[in-house]
Amino acid sequence: MGGQADDPRQQFTAAWEAATAALGEWRRQIEVATNEALDKLEPAVRAAVEAGRSAVTGSWRGCRCPCVTAHPEDKGVCDGRAVLTRRLGNADVSLCAPCAVAQGVAEMPR
Ligand SMILES: [Zn+2]
Ligand SMILES: [Zn+2]
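# zinc ion complex -> structure
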């Protein structure tokens, strides 16, 4: 049996790849830039979060993003459910998808 499609990790990876692809698209668009890009991205990220959440229910930690300092302009976006780990300085920090997006934007030169 080739039941790989039922592997929740694989499903999550596919969902996250879709989200990061959308992120790349968003970054490109932000260079030409309007908030409309954010409106386009958000549903894609939300879909990935939902997919990841259902695939790995209960096995992910909460978001540890230091929202106030990491993305002060978007601190309200955190949904508290980590979907990835990102290396910040010397530490791995669990981030939810909205925070990962917000931090990506925060790193963009204005
Ligand atoms: Zn945050
Ligand atoms: Zn968060």
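# post-check
The chain has a mean pLDDT of 71.
Residues 63, 65, 78, 95-96, 98-99 surround zinc ion (ligand 2) (CB under 6 Å).
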